[in-house]
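Justification of computing resources. Each target in the renewal requires a structure prediction run like the one illustrated here; the chain below, 72 residues long, is used simply to show the kind of job we budget for.
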Amino acid sequence: MKKKYSKYVLGTAQFGGPYGINLNKKLVKDIELKKIFTYSIKNKIKQLDTARNYGNCEKRLKYKSINNFDVI
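Resulting structure tokens:
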């Protein structure tokens, strides 16, 4: 059975450090991460894009409930 993917992927670069338009700002706070994950699940966003060079992003994701996501 072919796996069905959503149209959108949640990028996680800003969860691990300054990146893109938030280059000079602080990390996304844990309470905001929770809101983002809740919104994503509610709206059937099923993939997370992450990489080792996204600062401590992977470490932070380990402490979140990412069982509902495919990590790419």
